[in-house]
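Here is the promised in-class demo. Please do not try to memorize the tokens; focus on the logic of going from shape to residues.
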């Protein structure tokens, strides 16, 4: 029997039972549709995560911060001793809480501060391409005979997002360049309101910061309803009040107990010294305020300050204050030479007693979550195809019983057992291939409105405009869906086909 004859007989049998064939095929269509959709969006989300995360250096960046918790060995045993008669388990629970409270409050500063020496050690780690110290100072800017409160932040010369916001002048060339870039709003406060204030380029701006050591301070009480910061004159006057406060408490309307309480509190504080940082810098550029899209989709490398300083220049200015030199930075950024070396760098940083955070860890957790979700969807699709396969097996068994006489006639005219099996296997394969193709087509059609809906939700809630589709249908995916459906349905037809092949032709011809 020729292949064409076997295929024709299989198609003829399916056509004769159109309703049954349609219902059986619909089960395969549903399973193939779910399988195609789950594989498509799973692959699309993975590609989107990879694509969006590689638009910048974020996956190669490690944020380093000092640990502020105290050391258990430094806590006197008497301070965490639990008093009272109670069980050992309860005593240990209360002791852990007392210890946690002592460790959490560490007013003396971080255990391993990010000092200049420790920053150099971090920069010397294997696979570190660059280190960017994050400094932020609050003080005053003096320009054209006027003084305005401002903040100064550090930025790396290769920060492309900040460089794109330059409206006049240029961005930094080197991390140690002696220059500043000024925010257009700070210039507006100085009375310079032109769209392109080129007249400020090359002029000098003096920055002044009053850095106070740890101790008793009153600056909080000069917080103004208008939101304006403390002026330089106010800071100087407040410093004089602070120095005279401990010897002037008797002039306030206080009880003896209240006065004694305040005096004791101030004696427990270290003397608070003020160190003035002052430096002049030429203005080489002006950068604009962020637009709405940039404020809604903030990248971690944005810096919004009145004045920008190159990273190493800002670091040198920051550590000129003795209190800063002892306490160190609050954060620094390390950039790995390659993405696969990020975990090694993070482990080395943690071995140094510092905290390390990386976007790579977050992305890997997200990948795992998506893998679990889409794996569950694929299992649902597999179950649907399994149910469809059981329906096909049942349909084939019914077909064997109904076509017993037909099978007997084919055997009587010379059809071998293999031919009979091939006819029934072809019927199962045809149902699978047709159902898989239709399910795949429906998946591709449904992906069009689904993708538009998902991307609109991402744009609305996360403020991220995705350029590419979240549903992808690469060739391997389409072949997998159709082939899997065909294999499942073919296997479902194996038992009915073998049973049909074992039919006795003599008995079959007598069958009514």
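The designed amino acids, position by position:
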């Amino acid at each position: 029997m020729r292949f064409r004859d076997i295929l024709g007989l299989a198609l003829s049998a399916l056509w004769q039972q159109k309703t049954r064939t349609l219902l059986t095929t619909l089960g395969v269509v549903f399973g193939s549709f779910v399988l195609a959709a789950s594989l498509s969006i799973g692959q699309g989300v993975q590609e989107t995560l990879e694509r969006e995360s590689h638009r910048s250096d974020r996956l190669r960046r490690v944020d380093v911060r000092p640990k502020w918790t105290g050391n258990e060995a430094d806590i006197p045993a008497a301070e965490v001793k639990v008093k009272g008669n109670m069980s050992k388990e309860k005593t240990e629970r209360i002791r852990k809480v007392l210890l946690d409270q002592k460790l959490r409050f560490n007013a003396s500063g971080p255990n391993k501060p990010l000092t200049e020496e420790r920053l150099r050690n971090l920069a010397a780690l294997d696979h570190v391409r660059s280190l960017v110290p994050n400094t932020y100072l609050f003080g005053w800017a003096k320009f054209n005979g006027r003084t305005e409160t401002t903040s100064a932040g550090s930025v790396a010369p290769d920060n492309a997002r900040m460089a794109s916001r330059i409206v006049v002048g240029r961005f930094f060339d080197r991390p140690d360049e002696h220059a500043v870039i000024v925010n257009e709003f700070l210039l507006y406060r100085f009375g310079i309101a032109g769209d392109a204030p080129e007249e400020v380029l090359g002029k000098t701006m003096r920055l002044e910061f009053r850095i106070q050591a740890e101790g008793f301070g009153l600056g909080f009480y000069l917080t103004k309803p208008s939101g304006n910061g403390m002026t330089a004159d106010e800071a100087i006057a407040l410093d004089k009040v602070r120095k005279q406060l401990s010897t002037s408490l008797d002039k306030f309307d206080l009880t003896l107990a209240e006065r004694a309480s305040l005096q004791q509190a101030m004696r427990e504080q270290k003397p608070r010294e003020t160190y003035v940082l002052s430096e002049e810098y030429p203005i080489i550029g002006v950068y604009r305020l962020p637009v709405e899209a940039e404020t809604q989709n903030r990248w971690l490398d944005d810096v919004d300050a009145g004045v920008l300083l190159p990273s190493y220049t800002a670091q040198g200015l920051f550590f000129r204050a003795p209190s800063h030199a002892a306490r160190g930075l609050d954060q620094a950024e390390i950039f790995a030479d390659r993405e696969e070396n990020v975990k090694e760098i993070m482990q080395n940083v943690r071995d140094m007693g510092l905290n390390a955070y990386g976007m790579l860890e977050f992305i890997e957790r997200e990948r795992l979550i998506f893998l679990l979700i889409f794996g569950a969807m694929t299992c649902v699709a597999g179950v649907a195809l399994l149910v469809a396969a059981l329906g096909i097996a049942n349909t084939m068994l019914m077909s064997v019983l109904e076509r017993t006489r037909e099978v007997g006639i084919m055997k009587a005219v010379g059809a071998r057992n293999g031919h009979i099996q091939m006819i029934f296997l072809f019927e199962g394969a045809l149902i699978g291939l047709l159902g898989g193709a239709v399910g795949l087509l429906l998946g591709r059609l449904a992906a069009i409105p689904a993708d538009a809906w998902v991307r609109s939700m991402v744009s609305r809630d996360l403020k991220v405009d995705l350029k590419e589709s979240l549903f992808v249908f690469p060739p391997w995916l389409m072949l997998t869906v159709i082939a899997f459906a065909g294999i499942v349905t073919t296997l479902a037809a194996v038992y009915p086909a073998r049973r049909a092949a074992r039919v006795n032709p003599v008995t079959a011809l007598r069958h009514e």
